[in-house]
Amino acid sequence: MREVLAIEVTAAAVRCLRLAGFGPARRVRAYVERPLPSGLLVPSSSRPNIQNEAAFSRILAEAVGSGRPGRVRLVVPDRSVRIHILNTDALAPHGADLRGFVAWRLRDTLPFEPREARVAFMAAPNGLPNRLMAITLVAREQVVAQYERLIGMLGARVAHVAPAACHLFNLADLEAAGPGAWDHGFLALGIESATLILSRQGVPWYARTFPRPTAAPDGPPAPGPRPPASLREAPSPTVKAELVQEVARTLQHAADEAGLGQPAGLLLAGEMGRDAALAAALQAGLGIPAAVLSPAPSIRGVSNLPSEAHAVLAAALARA
């Protein structure tokens, strides 16, 4: 029986989902979530994320359990592998040359030398003659290599890696904005960061990751593991207002840089994006329809998953 193992790591938890079977017979075989102590994983696209490899490995092994397949699909925080959208009419046609070209195009935005970059990309037409979009993921080699090495110690190989926003975007039904809608907005809200993706006909045209507004703490954090995201308080009115302002600034930047108009709708997802009141605040502040992502793929067992499992579910469903 074919089985897929997807693993998601965040600053707060490790999530593992096993998907078994083919076609209509596919089903969720198992889902496990384990909390991570505060500070054990610090998302970064330029520095190794795991601060205590021995402690992380123990928690990862407990979450994965036995019966490990040879290949793993890995979901990492949005700040660990960055999304860039490039427009070009001069993409080199083959692997090594294209990787070098993409790294060169991003050289002014990388906090490390382009030769140290791990790059993945997918080209798509952008609607103009001989013009392409290069949807690009980039991180420093040592960031991805650390994850690969620690998962490899379990006897598995990382076959696919992407940030949570990419998987959530793929899980979203962008046709829900209605017939004839052209521009769509997708906001993935993690614990520490937010990623806004704007697309045309399902093809991303613009992406930006920024720190997610949070309330100032009243004092030092309590000792011990952080509580799961589902147990944390809803965003305060101040946090909602700051998020509305940040999204508005991002939409203006997308208009200036990519010529994108106001999106027809905004879809919220992610660990901190499951709040209808937050969607209502964004809708009122931005003047565009906003709703919370509620995916319902026809796979047995999906209805029993918590909503924070959406990203790891999308990774398990990916064809790559």
Key structural traits:
five-stranded mixed sheet; 320 residues; Nucleotidyltransferase, domain 5; alpha/beta
Task: Give the gist of this structure.
By secondary structure, this protein is of the alpha/beta class. It has 7 helices and 13 strands. The strands form 3 sheets. The chain has a 5-stranded mixed sheet with strand order 3-2-1-4-8, with helices on both faces. It has a 5-stranded mixed sheet with strand order 11-10-9-12-13, sandwiched between helices. A 3-stranded antiparallel sheet has the order 5-7-6.
**Count of DSSP helices?**
7
Oligomer: single chain
Silhouette:
globular
Q: Give average pLDDT, whole number.
A: 83
* Low-confidence segments: 174-181, 217-232
Q: In the residues, how many domains can be counted?
A: 2
Count of strand segments: 13
* CATH architecture verdict of the largest domain: 2-Layer Sandwich
Q: Kindly, what is the distance between the CA atoms of the first and last residues, rounded to a whole number of angstroms?
A: 19 Å
- Largest sheet descriptor: 5 strands, mixed
Class from helix and strand fractions: alpha/beta
Gyration radius from CA atoms, angstroms: 19 Å
What is the topological layout?
Elements: E1 3-9, E2 13-20, E3 27-35, H1 53-64, E4 71-76, E5 82-88, H2 95-105, E6 117-125, E7 132-140, H3 141-152, E8 157-163, H4 164-171, E9 183-189, E10 193-200, E11 203-211, H5 237-258, E12 266-269, H6 276-286, E13 290-292, H7 310-317
Parallel strand pairs: 1-4, 4-8, 9-12, 12-13
Antiparallel strand pairs: 1-2, 2-3, 5-7, 6-7, 9-10, 10-11
Helix pairs in contact: 4-7, 5-6
